[in-house]
Design brief:
It contains 13 helices and 15 strands. By secondary structure, the protein is an alpha/beta fold. The chain has two domains: 132 residues, Alpha-Beta Complex (Aspartate Aminotransferase, domain 1); 238 residues, Type I PLP-dependent aspartate aminotransferase-like (Major domain) (Aspartate Aminotransferase, domain 2), CATH 3.40.640. The protein is globular, with a radius of gyration of 21 Å. The termini are far apart. The protein binds pyridoxal-5'-phosphate. Pyridoxal-5'-phosphate binds next to α5.
Length: 392
């Protein structure tokens, strides 16, 4: 049955990173995996059908991006994100993280500055450092229980250093924050003033809850189009990470040429036949599934918050406005940040992402992935509770 998000699917032994890399990352084969950001849900029937048809009727040779793929992306971006795009504005990549790397290589020179928020999704910092650029972190503030950009700090750093690029997680992983229109307007205006290209990673932007509205910087003012590269993919929302297809939306011809030059150095601009087929089916034929998914995830979000409010009232958490990630502060455990992850494994037999890998300011936080059947979620929450009970 489609949309049966309660169904437990055995992913063990399927080469799933989330399930089969537990021994390597956590030293345990049994820890309940609530870490890597993919979902324990089956993908929609429309995508299955499209992939079956591909296998039954096609030769799996090299592919060009199809007209249907481009149309499906353009229509999705128009209806969901008020973005007008045509074929000329699109480039493809096997993944958003790889595309972030191409942006760093194409739009900065060695040692030049790239700014990110702190905390933020781990590859943002590693990709800058691995490419020999200088990393600047702007710590996020916490206000009314949510992350907020420190725009004054960003401007001071733009003034003081040679910063060429800003990598933004929009919405924010790990905090689940959906940036306000005002914050995005101000950030993008600062980028324009100081000639910093803004890369807006919007991979989670279709996982936004009913109480929030997501904005894309390029839609806020036409002049921003010249300074913003938007990265997106259907893989997060439709649980297709293994099919490997992401895309850049870029309006500035000079920036596009620079990106294409780096892509051509490693022949990275092609499309995966499976990714293309799955993405096109996702964007053009899976709307009902996505709606049902968001309803289920919103229920799960409520379950997690209710559980923490009732069972762990002293633990601070951020209400996710988007994403299926729940970010909570484990500092009342009084455990060194290097030991936190292992404590959750050893005491609770649960695999969570640890805050210290997301930044210097979040060492005491942990990240829980709640995109799983409710029965599994309750099991995970009780494991977390057992850690707080036994360690305190
Ligand atoms: C903000 C963000 N960007 C990118 C990715 C991964 O993108 P991809 O699998 O397309 O490389 C993730 C995965 O969790 C993410 O959270």
């Amino acid at each position: 049955m489609e949309n049966d998000f309660d169904k437990i699917i055995n992913r063990k032994g399927t080469n799933s990173v989330k399930w089969d890399a537990r021994k390597a990352f956590f030293g345990s084969d049994t820890a309940l995996p609530m870490w890597v950001a993919d979902m324990d849900f089956d993908h929609p029937d429309s995508i299955k059908q499209a992939l079956h048809e591909l296998i039954d009727h096609s030769i799996l040779g090299y592919s060009l991006p199809s007209d249907q793929l481009i149309k499906s992306i353009a229509e999705w971006q128009k209806s969901r994100h008020q973005m007008t795009i045509s074929e000329e504005n699109l480039l493809f990549a096997p993944g958003v993280v790889g595309a972030l790397g191409v942006c760093v290589q194409a739009l900065t020179s060695p040692k030049e500055g790239v700014m990110i928020h702190d905390p933020v999704y781990t590859p943002f910092s590693s990709i800058v450092e691995h490419n020999g650029r200088t990393l600047y972190r702007s710590p996020l503030l916490i206000e009314n229980g949510q992350y907020k950009m420190d725009l004054q700090n960003i401007e001071e750093m733009f003034k003081a250093h040679s910063i060429k690029l800003f990598l933004l997680s929009n919405p924010h992983n790990p905090g689940g924050r959906v940036w306000s229109k005002e914050e995005l307007l101000e950030l993008t205006a600062l980028c324009v003033t100081y000639q910093v290209v803004l890369v807006s990673d919007e991979i989670h932007s279709d996982l936004v809850y009913s109480d929030s509205t997501i904005y894309s910087p390029v839609t806020l003012d036409d002049q921003y189009k010249e300074w913003v590269v938007t990265l997106h993919s259907a893989t997060k929302t439709f649980n297709l990470a293994g099919t490997k297809l992401a895309f850049y939306i870029v309006y500035n011809e000079e920036i596009k040429n620079k990106l294409q030059f780096i892509q051509s150095q490693t022949e990275q601009g092609g499309v995966s036949t499976f990714g293309m087929t799955a993405t096109e089916a996702a964007f053009s034929r899976s709307e009902g599934w996505q709606k049902a998914l968001l309803t289920y995830l919103e229920e799960n979000r409520q379950i997690v918050m209710d559980f923490f409010d009732k069972e762990l009232p002293d633990v601070f958490y951020m209400k996710p406005e988007s994403t299926y990630l729940f970010w909570f502060d484990a500092s009342i455990l009084n455990i060194d940040s290097m030991q936190l992850k292992q404590t959750f494994v050893d005491v609770g037999d649960i695999a969570l992402n640890d805050g210290q890998s997301y930044g210097e300011s979040s060492g005491q936080f942990m990240r829980l992935n709640f995109a799983c059947p409710k029965s599994v979620l309750l099991d995970g929450l009780n494991r977390i509770k057992s850690v707080f009970e036994s360690v305190r």
